[in-house]
Every structure is written in structure tokens, then in C-alpha cells.
Amino acid sequence: MVPYETEGCRGKDETGRAKTREAKLGCVFTQVGVDAEGRPIREEGSTTCVGAIETAPEFGQRIFTESIRCPRNCHRRVDAPG
Questions:
Q1: CA angle 66, 49, 6 (to 5 degrees)
Q2: What's the Cα-to-Cα distance from 79 to each of 2, 14, 35, rounded to whole Å?
Q3: In sequence order, what are the residues at sequence separation of 6 or more whose Cβ sits closer than 8 angstroms to the Cβ of residue 27?
Q4: Which end of the chain, N or C, is surrounded by fewer C-beta atoms within 10 Å?
Q5: Would the pTM count as exceeding 0.90?
Q6: Rounded to the nearest 5°, which phi and psi values hold at 61?
Q7: Which one, of 51, 67, 69, lies nearest residue 59 by Cα?
């Protein structure tokens, strides 16, 4: 980061000035099942991604909004086999 991008942000060192920022990234997809190890299997073409430098509550709203924005991500439940 360059100094003007961290102006007004609280830092953790003795000066109290921030030198870095935390980027948050997330992806949303429709799960169609699980593999043999129990990991989710994504529906092809359903993955969308978001990213931002913002607070956790702001990013939580961003990723939630993304999850309901795309009609492919229809919040259906897929139970694991077995």
C-alpha cells in the first residue's frame, strides 16, 4: 500500500499508523453433491467471485448479496450421500 491508501486506518505498531490493508475474497457456487472425501462438488458455471478492501461486516453483506443476486445460486439443499 502507498501511504494515502492507509490514511485514517488504525495500525498495530507504536505509531498507530496502518501500513497494510486486508483484502477479502469470496466465491459463491451451487453445490450439486460431495466427492468421496466429503468436499463440495460445484455445479459447472455457477461460481461467482467478489473481492474488496473493507470491514468484515461490509464484506459479509457483499458476499451475502452475491449469493442471492445470481439465479443459479438458488439456495437449495443437497444432502450428502449415505
A1: 95
A2: 47, 51, 12
A3: 47, 48, 49, 50
A4: C
A5: no
A6: -65, -40
A7: 51
